[in-house]
Amino acid sequence: MSTSKKRLARSGLIAAAVTTALVMTGCSAAEPAPSATPTKGGTLSVWFPGTNQAEIDLVTKKIVPAFEKKTGSTVTVTYVDWNNISPKLNAAFAAGTAPDVFGHGPAAAADFVANGRLEPLTSDVASMSASDRKDTATAFAGGKVDGTQYLIPLSMTGNLLMYNADDFTAAGLDPDKPPTTWEAVLADAKKLTKRENGSITRSGLLLPSQPIGRQQSFATLLFAAGGKLVNSAGTAAAFNSSAGVQALNYMKSLYTGPDAVSANLGADYANAPIAQQPLVLGTASMTMLPSTTMQQIIAANPDKDLRVVQPTSLGSGKPAAFGGAGPGLMVNADSKQKALAWQFIDYMISPSVSAEYTQGIGAIPIRASALSTDYVKNSAVLKAFLKASPDFMTNPNVGGWVQVRDQLDKQVEQALQGATPAKDALTAAANASNPILKANG
Asked: pLDDT tens per residue, the chain (441 residues)?
């Protein structure tokens, strides 16, 4: 199988990362005992989702070798790009060749649980020290399905707008007063957009519009308009609402008409190398990005005055943005190395390694204690994301969500391409999603 690479990033609540005194849910009587400490040695296969080279180098060249030296084990690491991680995992499970440990987003956990693919980790978490459980409780909450821990997040994440302050000044905008509503974002974007011969040469605003990314862009706007993705019971779609139509029409307006502010619909700028990021190339003045990419852009371009916009509202909604517990690691229920698998995960989230990992990729730490570190205190990006944390919302961790997300993503694409009106696209997505949600509810 081909191995590829990408960034570990996206979905839980960063909000509580700034809080303390959180209590971890205890394990149920049905939980198996925590994995025993493995004997020296053993072979472990681990799949990570992503293609971010900084993460790949850090994990494969530093973190894993250190773990192997400490345990005497052999760890085979494979990176699989996000678009292929689910299909390749499903094929591997069917063939009986799935890895011992694999990474994915929290919203995918419920489907893996429903298919009996995951080992419960509640008892393993309970075996951690009380201080460690408290320190990681907020992040870990995003990895539970029906109260049972299955996924251990490696970072927290979110998507916010970053803007070039010099572009604001040149366009007659005040860089010290960024927009506070999506309507104001669009108005500023129109002033920032540049054209030559009728074509946009500098986008005033770019939101992710590639597969999966466009669903997260839509979700951000939906949340900001006061909408929800599914009903409270998780049994029916709720995105086909007036808020949903408003959000999708807003996205369409970025690319269509004489006042369009965005170029290259469908292009995956979010996962492009840092040197090819639109903010670096000067081909965009505002882009939506996760904290990891923002940190790497600033580190590579310290001369640029790049700043972060706090979550904004749309229409009558309240400020909101897409974010929460980031992707994490899960243990294959069929693994013959469950003890070693947990030891690897426990090592990844240990204070020193977790700090090395999150700092190495520019991510938001899972440990509340990291708030007092120089890494956070010295980063304008991290401080901006932590300030925004109360307004982060994420995809629902319900059975069938990955299928629902793909249905929604497909219809959002049709609307953005102008093939389907926003209302019809969302109705079609809901009609395809409701049987899935009902069957898994």
From this structure: 333 333 333 333 333 333 333 333 333 334 445 555 555 789 999 999 998 898 999 999 999 999 999 999 999 999 999 989 999 999 999 999 999 999 999 988 988 998 999 999 999 999 999 999 999 988 898 899 889 999 999 998 889 999 999 999 999 999 999 999 999 999 999 999 999 998 999 999 999 999 989 999 999 999 999 999 999 999 999 999 999 999 999 999 999 999 999 999 999 999 899 999 999 999 999 999 998 899 889 999 999 999 999 999 999 999 999 988 889 999 999 999 999 999 999 999 999 999 999 988 888 899 988 878 898 889 999 989 888 888 989 888 888 888 999 999 999 999 999 999 999 999 999 999 999 999 986
Domain of residue 367, CATH code: 3.40.190.10
Whole domain around residue 414: which residue ranges?
159-321+400-440
For residue 2, tell me if it sits in a domain.
Answer: no
Q: Are residues 95 and 222 in the same domain?
A: no
**Would 230 be classed as within a structural domain?**
yes
Four-point Cα dihedral 139, 321, 397, 427, nearest 10: 180
- The pTM is what? 0.75
Distances (CA, A) of 244 to 187, 328, 426: 21, 29, 8
Number of domains, the chain: 2
Residue 393 included in any domain:
no
User: Would 82 be classed as within a structural domain?
Assistant: yes
User: 125 with 149: CB under 8 angstroms?
Assistant: yes
Same domain, 40 and 74: yes
Backbone angles phi, psi at 318, to 5 degrees: -115, 160
My answer on whether 301 and 421 are in the same domain is yes
First-to-final CA distance of the chain = 34
Tokens 């366009």 appear where? 171
